[in-house]
Design a protein that fits this description.
- With about 230 residues, the chain is an alpha/beta fold.
- The strands form four sheets. Strands 3-6-7-8-9 form a five-stranded parallel beta sheet, with helices on one face. The chain has a four-stranded antiparallel beta sheet with strand order 4-5-13-10, with no helix packed on it. A two-stranded antiparallel sheet has the order 1-2.
- About 25% of the residues lie in helices and about 20% in strands.
- It has five helices and 13 strands.
- The radius of gyration is 17 Å and the shape is globular.
Length: about 230
Amino acid sequence: MNTKVNLAGVELKNPVMTASGTFGSGAEYGEMVDLNRLGAVVTKGVANIPWPGNPTPRIAETYGGMINAIGLQNPGYEVFAKRDIPYLKQFDTKIIVNVCGKTTEDYIDVVEKLSDEPVDMLEINISCPNVKEGGIAFGQDPKAVEAITREVKKYAKQPVIMKLSPNVTDITVMARAAEAGGADVLSLINTLTGMKIDIHKRNFAVANRTGGLSGPAIKPVAVRMVYQAANAVK
């Protein structure tokens, strides 16, 4: 059976890949999962400098799922390039690097540095807060989505995947904005924003107050948004 898929000219031997943020950068699960069987490993977010993440507690169980507010903790590009890329290159799988940042310049810095690395695609996490625009996520403003996509494309040598946030009024508007900016591929969806209150402690369950909600109940929302986006773009 031929299970190959083509993403913007990059051929994956099958469509099975990890979701960014759930699999570390591969080494964390390498002893439990044969990475050679995956079409691609999508790494956790990589910033231009180390990010400490949010204060603890950062994870809370919910009914049928969980809330996480890790805050994209990562060791930064230098450690990733020295440690994680060589590890992943041992395996017969494609490497897709998730890129995060707090300003357009942050994203460009990482994208430029990755341009000479042996990675196959870049997934741009635009659910990050844009510190220059008062903290609103890049992915919640269509003008910002188009602008960040266009800027990243100027510097990227690998195909660019724009990872869209579901925390918007109309996902099709964001999909069209990413397309207008030159995105090669769209990735849907990042986590929905949720909150849990610990009624016994009378406090928020995670220190950040809100976090990304994941679990089986999210899938129908994601499927709906994939359908809408697929019908909105070329």
